[in-house]
Specification:
Layout: E1 2-3, H1 13-21, E2 30-32, H2 43-46, E3 54-56, H3 64-73, E4 79-81, H4 89-92, E5 103-105, H5 113-122, E6 128-130
Parallel strand pairs: 1-2, 2-3, 3-4, 4-5, 5-6
């Protein structure tokens, strides 16, 4: 488990890069970047974590570009927290490719009811989700 507590709430994409370049993190399974200043740019570094299963991006500036990159490379994701991020339906549709996804927090995002229905139909393993304060709620 790696948490941003060591780098602080003002951690940036550059900080993520420095931490991940500081040692071998290939076996990292859980990462929390919640309440930091990271953006979609940090996805360029997160994709180097082939065993990442749990990712918390709550209240960051993470958006569709980063989400699409994550989906393309991080196939083992089981839980993803995107609460209060900048993601929209455009990026959220890509989540249908994450067949291992079982827990998803989209609270306070721009999720539409239509895309939520698509996610439910294409991700049968999705058993836990939070869609409060979205159009789909």
């Amino acid at each position: 488990v790696v948490s941003t507590q060591s780098t602080g709430a003002h951690s940036t994409d550059d900080d993520v890069q420095k931490v991940l370049n500081s040692g071998p993190f290939g076996n990292l399974e859980k990462l929390s970047l919640a309440f930091t200043c990271v953006t979609s740019e940090c996805a360029l570094h997160l994709v180097k974590l082939p065993n990442l299963q749990h990712l918390n991006l709550w209240c960051t500036q993470f958006g569709d570009t980063g989400l699409c990159l994550l989906v393309e490379h991080c196939h083992q994701l089981k839980s993803l927290n995107l609460c209060e991020t900048l993601v929209t339906d455009e990026g959220l549709r890509a989540l249908t490719e994450l067949k291992s996804l079982s827990c998803l927090n989209l609270n306070s995002t721009k999720l539409s009811a239509q895309v939520f229905d698509e996610l439910l139909s294409k991700l049968p393993g999705l058993t836990s989700y939070d869609i409060r304060y979205t159009e789909a709620w």
